[in-house]
Amino acid sequence: MNETDKPAVRMDAIGVSTTDLAASLAFYRRLGLAFPEGAEQLPHVEAEATGGIRLMFDPDGSGENTGRGRIALAFHCGDAAGVDATYAELTGAGYHGEAKPWDAVWGQRYAVVQDPDGNQVDLFA
Question: Using CA atoms, how far apart are residues 115 and 61, in angstroms rounded to an integer?
């Protein structure tokens, strides 16, 4: 197969195995994702993010975090003030702040929080 025969590849979805589906959906709703009403009772839940990327959640059923791989998700917050406000809103709601907002050497305003399963969530502008 030569280069012109290769299919176009694009990121389509990010899958998250969660120990507490309701808590995960509440967290990501605060970041602007929309889930159907009653999604907390479903065996599989998806939300389409900006650009068509899907974020998919599946309860792992074990009730405990098995450490089967970690994920990091990045959310663009518009500008530096958006990073600060989003970090404040999430940590004010009780979510763990891993790193308070700072001006990164690569030129972005950056902060890190954890979702309810301890996955890293980067906030940047």
Answer: 18
Asked if 120 and 70 touch (Cβ cutoff 8 Å), the reply is yes
Q: In angstroms, how far is CA 47 from the centroid of its own chain?
A: 11
pLDDT for the residue 9: 57
CA–CA separation, 34 and 20 (whole Å): 17
Dihedral angle sign, alpha carbons of residues 93, 120, 35, 38: negative
Dihedral (C-alpha) 48, 35, 80, 110: value to the nearest 10 degrees? Answer: -80
pLDDT of residue 124: 92
Residue 97 in contact with residue 121, Cβ under 8 Å?
no
Question: Which residue, chain included where needed, has tokens 């001006």?
Answer: 103
Which pTM was predicted?
0.70
